[in-house]
Design brief:
alpha/beta, Rossmann fold, 3 domains, six-stranded antiparallel sheet, 25% strand, elongated
């Protein structure tokens, strides 16, 4: 008998003895699994290690995320990529590996997908084949169903640490210098509007979490995200808002733009938008320009200058007929500081630039770089460098108003 058939036989035995008329706890399921696996191991003279593997596999299949659970439980794994039933890849220490296990069937993969989206009241089907959601631990999930994903349904999971990094840890890891971190802390306390840019996997959400820890506990914070990922610690006056997809049952979509408008009526001290991807950029800029100083957001770009171009494009994506000069004026007056992050060739994530937005001159936004990362050398595959101060803050008005200058 093949392993797959043995597994299915044991699974059926456990399910037959499970009382589905009431809520059955994990411990009860584990005991049922243990009993049947012990009997099978004794009959077929299996090792204790093999028996333990079967017990874990069965429990993950019945109560967790099947073969993915082993990867999710490994804290050193940062990304999981499922390409149909047969191919699962993961990233560990910055390198990609193919997992030796796979889903037993297409139906099992579809069951896991429905379990993931169902835990967050999301829906994914042929009418709505692409969805962003999250796991219960906050890990970000993107799902694309077959046949849109030609070779089978695809799942991409971006894992986050169970305990979010704090700024001292990022300093210790070399992601930012102590001088730059202290400078950003002062800006947060003085309520400067800060926009974090970077490429995919550069650590924008992690850095935003760390930066938000400088926000005073008494502030009323509204966070707005596609999928709730931010973990703000010690913030009691916090409202977390999350978008919603439309579905075929008549449930209407709730977009980032809808949530920003709602947040402005909730008496926020500041607003944190997890990521700007489209027309909501205009709403973020307007919030920053209408008394919600200290707001934070992130976006994809290759540099601070590129982030400005991206913001201009995103505003235009919102079907607004604004001249470019007006959009640039909104950016220049709304955003005080850009922080750009990068993922270097050794897979380390670092702050590469901290840049001040000075204002407008001849129709262009004027930038003043304050900190810049300089690479010195590469030692045994590790990039060595330093984030150096290269300029002084010109707009000190908020610092003066906060009594910090």
């Amino acid at each position: 008998m093949t392993d797959e058939k043995i597994f299915q036989e044991l699974k059926d035995l456990v399910l037959d003895e499970t009382d589905l008329s009431r809520e059955v706890g994990d411990d009860e399921i584990k005991e049922l699994i243990r009993r049947h696996c012990r009997r099978y191991a004794k009959e077929h003279m299996l090792t204790l290690q093999k028996q333990t593997e079967w017990e874990q596999f069965l429990f993950h299949s019945l109560r967790k995320l099947d073969v993915l659970q082993e990867l999710l439980d490994d804290e050193q794994i940062t990304e999981i990529m499922v390409n149909g039933t047969e191919h699962i890849f993961y990233e560990k220490h910055g390198k990609l590996y193919e997992f030796e296990k796979s889903f037993t069937s297409k139906e099992k993969l579809e069951d896991i997908i429905q379990q993931i989206v169902g835990d967050n009241n999301r829906m994914v089907n042929l009418a709505n084949p692409i969805v962003d959601t999250r796991l219960l631990d906050g890990s970000r999930v993107n799902i694309v169903l077959s046949p849109i994903s030609i070779d089978g349904s695809a799942i991409s999971i971006r894992k986050f640490p169970r305990n979010p990094y704090e700024m001292p840890e990022l300093i210790q890891m070399g992601a930012i210098s102590e001088e730059a971190a202290d400078f950003l802390k002062k800006l947060i306390l003085a309520r400067y509007n800060i926009f974090i840019s970077g490429g995919t996997g550069s650590g924008k959400t992690t850095f935003l979490n760390a930066l938000s820890q400088f926000i005073p506990a008494e502030e009323r914070i509204i966070t707005i995200e596609d999928s709730a990922e931010l973990q703000l610690i010690g913030k009691n006056n916090l409202v977390r808002l999350e978008t919603r997809n439309a579905n075929t049952d008549g449930v209407t979509a709730i977009s980032i733009r809808d949530l920003i408008r709602a947040a402005l009526r909730m008496r926020p001290s500041l607003i944190i938008v997890g990521e700007c991807r489209g027309g909501e950029a205009l709403d973020v800029l307007q919030a920053m320009n209408t008394g919600h100083d200290g707001s934070l957001s992130t976006g994809h770009a290759n540099s601070c200058k590129d982030m400005i171009s991206r913001l201009e494009t995103m505003v235009l994506m919102g079907n607004v007929e604004l001249p470019l000069a007006a959009i640039r004026s909104q950016i220049a007056s709304g955003i005080d500081i850009f922080v750009h992050l990068g993922r270097l060739r050794d897979k380390s994530r670092k702050v590469l630039s901290i840049t001040e937005v000075v204002g407008m001159e001849n129709g262009e936004i004027v930038l003043n770089e304050l900190f810049h990362f300089y690479e010195r050398m590469e030692v045994e595959g590790h990039v060595k460098g330093e984030l150096k101060k290269v300029g002084s803050l010109k707009n000190e008005e908020k610092l003066r108003n906060a009594g910090m200058c």
